[in-house]
Specification:
four-stranded antiparallel beta sheet; alpha/beta; globular; Rossmann fold; six-stranded mixed beta sheet; binds adenosine-5'-diphosphate; binds magnesium ion
């Protein structure tokens, strides 16, 4: 398969078609460059995204700027419909904004080609969603291993087994998602998100379908990830989740309305 890269200036560059090996080398170079010392892991600047719906325009995110540094656990709180999921998807490179920029580990995500953005995301960003998004026909272990199909993960099988153990899923490793409790499904999704050793975790209402005990496991794992030098952005309308965050940002109608640092 041949892949066409855009030149650095954003123009298509059809003569520079590269094969998979070269694409992989480029992805690795980009991924292992690390985060420039003067930049946070995630920098969102003046982000805006609107949707055209039923003849009118919804300004889902209307100019949000937000940094999440290594070691920070930032929760974004706000009522349903205030733009949290839109912000998170744009921050993770999954939804192109209308205006503003998103930098992850220094790279301007939407200035990258589609392939380079996917490679950068696969290596550096883990996602956890309310509805888990597991692959239904794969076992727990194979779901956890799935990111290693898209990016190089050293010792992936051993890492996957260790994560399965860590999240109390060893006796469920061969089960499919339909055979799991919701807590087990979310723990599987969390293990999957952590497999490549990302620098940034993005979580969208990850405790929305969970009982209190499993919610604590998930939030505790996000906190541990930040304490180990990762960056966490959690969007939720659950005020209890904020207790785990080092900083809370509140949103209303697509804008940040106030910020509060957690009690030490
Ligand atoms: N794909 C879409 N098309 C049209 N409107 C959308 C779409 N996604 C979200 N919206 C609207 O954008 C606003 C923000 O949505 P969302 O980011 O999902 O908020 P939250 O996650 O805080 O509930 C809401 O008014 C929602 O109805
Ligand atoms: Mg949402």
């Amino acid at each position: 398969m041949q892949t066409t890269f855009r030149a650095r200036h954003g123009r298509p560059c059809p003569r520079r078609a590269v094969g998979p090996a070269r694409l992989h080398r480029r992805a690795l170079r980009l991924s292992f460059r690390g985060v420039p010392a003067d930049l946070p892991t995630l920098r969102v600047e003046s982000l805006a995204k609107h949707y055209a719906a039923g003849g009118h325009t919804v300004h889902a995110v209307a100019g949000v700027s937000l940094d999440v540094a290594a070691g920070e656990f930032v929760s974004v709180q706000g009522p349903s419909g205030c733009g949290k999921s839109t912000l998170l998807l744009a921050a993770g490179g999954l939804l192109r904004p209308d205006a503003g920029t998103v930098r992850v580990a220094g790279a301007d995500l939407y200035a990258l080609s589609t392939d380079a953005r996917a490679a950068h995301r696969a290596r550096l960003v883990g996602f956890v969603f309310q509805r888990f998004h597991l692959v239904p026909y794969l076992s727990v272990l194979d779901n956890v291993l799935a990111p290693s199909l898209g990016t190089f993960v050293p010792d992936a099988p051993a890492r996957a087994r260790a994560l399965v153990e860590r999240f109390g899923l060893a006796d469920r490793a061969r089960h499919r998602p339909s055979e799991l409790s919701t807590g087990e499904r979310q723990r599987t999704a969390l293990a999957r998100a952590l497999l490549p050793g990302p620098k940034l975790l993005l979580a969208d209402e990850p405790t929305g379908n969970l009982d209190a005990e499993n919610a604590r496991v998930v939030l505790g794992a996000l906190r541990a990830f930040a304490q180990g030098g990762g960056a966490v952005l959690l969007v939720t309308h659950d005020p209890e989740a904020a207790a785990y965050a080092t900083r809370t940002v509140r949103m209303r109608h697509g804008r940040v309305v106030d910020e509060a640092a957690a009690e030490p």
